[in-house]
Amino acid sequence: MARRRKREYHLDVVSDINVTSLVDVMMTLLIIFIIVAPMIEQGIDVNLPTAEPKRIDVSEVLTIAVAENGRVYLENQRVTLEELEERLSNIHAAREEVAVMIKADTDLRYGRVVEVLDTVRGVGITRLAMATKPAE
Q1: Tens-digit pLDDT profile for residues 25-40
Q2: Domain, as residue range, for 85
Q3: Burial of 100 (0-12, 13-18, 19+ CB in 10 A)
Q4: Does some domain include residue 64?
């Protein structure tokens, strides 16, 4: 008769933490934050301050009008941005304290107004005003 041997099972103690499911949860949260973060940034409500409009003596102010089609006018004469820069630099050289009022159409692209603003600031004119209608 053969002797039966007892089988010995030697189990080691596992001291490692299984982090696989934790990594899955963290990756899911990271993806959610990446998707949601730009939406949160666009939805910020800003309460802008109100100000009393100041009257400017119109005789001292150059008027730049930007029409709906993007055409630029300096004192009712059509100019390109290069011509505008040249004329403004000549005027600014003659008079240091020159002011500019920009009248832009409501339906105009925002980028076109920024181009005109950059041209005016590039010449060195710092006194700028934007023409608006009073609120009813």
Answers
A1: 999 999 998 888 777 6
A2: 59-130
A3: buried
A4: yes
pLDDT band at 106 (very low <50, low <70, confident <90, very high): confident
Torsions phi, psi of 68, nearest 5?
Answer: -60, -30
Model confidence, pTM:
0.56
Assign residue 119 the CATH number of its domain: 3.30.420.270
Q: Is residue 21 part of a domain?
A: no
